Please model this.
Amino acid sequence: MTAFIPYAILVLVIIVAIILAMGLINMMRGGSPNRSQTLMRWRVIAQFIAVLAMVAALYFFGR
Model:
């Protein structure tokens, strides 16, 4: 189970990066401001979950 945690955190960080890139690309192309705003909100939520997972992993498995 402990071997799964780093991979899960890596996946969460990649998800955050993908959402961030999608939002930035949308803004650079001059896309809908509402879409950029929605993507940035989703990024904040995903980032919160990723940071929460990192803190939990450090708390439970830190040495």
